[in-house]
Amino acid sequence: MKMSKLSNQTNSQDPQAVNSRIFVGNLNTFQCSKTDVERMFQIYGRLAGISMHKGYAFVQFTNPFDARNACLGEDGKTILSQTLGK
Are 84 and 22 in contact (CB under 8 A)? Predict the structure, then answer.
């Protein structure tokens, strides 16, 4: 599966962008890469960007409905021995 080149920018204050962004907490960023996060969330819709930080990430979708579905679908799942939280 080919991964796209996603932006690292997820900090737009545009209301549409804010409602299309999710916070992924309790993420083992020492073992989990940006590509892993992309694979995890691309099933919910088109991604615009992912920014990785120590222990968490922000995932920017192009559509707020996709972001909401991703929250509902991934919250509480275990990835690399960590239980994800929003």
Answer: no
Q: CA of 55: how far to CAs of 5, 13, 20, 60, 83, in Å?
A: 22, 23, 21, 17, 12
Gap between the Cα atoms of 2 and 69, Å rounded: 23
Q: Which amino acid is at 58?
A: F
Sheet holding 47-53, edge to edge: 21-25, 56-61, 47-53
Percent of the chain, pLDDT > 90?
Answer: 52
Whether pTM exceeds 0.85 = no
Band of residue 1 on the pLDDT scale cut at 50, 70, 90? very low
Asked whether the beta carbons of 14 and 24 are under 8 A apart, the reply is no
**What kind and span of H or E run contains 49?**
strand 47-53
Q: Is the pLDDT of residue 16 over 90?
A: no
